[in-house]
Amino acid sequence: MNESILPKRLKELREKNGYLQKFVADKIGVRSNTLSGYENGTRKPDPEIIRDLAKLYNVSTDYLLGHETEQNKFDYYKNKIVTEFPDIDLMFHEMETLTADDLKDVYEFIKFKKSQNK
Fold first, then answer.
1. Ramachandran region, residue 40 (left: φ > 0; alpha: ψ -120 to 50; beta: rest)
2. Would you state the torsion angle of the CA atoms of residues 22, 6, 74, 113, taken in this order, to the nearest 10 degrees?
3. 47-to-9, 53, 92, 93, 97 alpha-carbon distances in Å
4. Does residue 46 register a pLDDT over 90?
5. CB 3.0 to 4.6 Å from 70: which of 51, 76, 81, 98, for a disulfide?
6. Residues 4, 41: contact at Cβ < 8 Å?
7. What percent of the chain is modeled with pLDDT above 90?
8. 31's torsion region: left (phi>0), alpha (psi -120 to 50) or beta?
C-alpha cells in the first residue's frame, strides 16, 4: 500500500460528499482529532475503521488503500465500456423505455454473446 494514498482519499471523499470531520468521526465512532490524523497521515486506522469508512463513502476498502484506481466496480466497468463503445449513451437512451422483462432479455442476450466469444 502506498502510505500517502489512504489519507489523501479519505480527505477527498469526505470533501466530495460535503461532510464535516465531526460528522464522519461520529459516524465511525472516533473523535474528530483522530479522523484528522487519519486524513493527514499521522495516524493509521485499524481495519474495522477502514471498513466503516469505505461503507460510509460507498467505495471498496481496496480503493481506500490504493489497490484499485476506481472508486467502485461500476465506475470501472463504466469507464471500460465508454472506452470500447463511445456511443454507449445512445444505447442507454434507447433502453430507458424498456420494461424490466425487456432488460432481462437484453441481459440474457449479453450473456449469450459472451459465451460465443469463449
1. alpha
2. -160
3. 16, 10, 38, 41, 44
4. yes
5. 76
6. yes
7. 64
8. beta
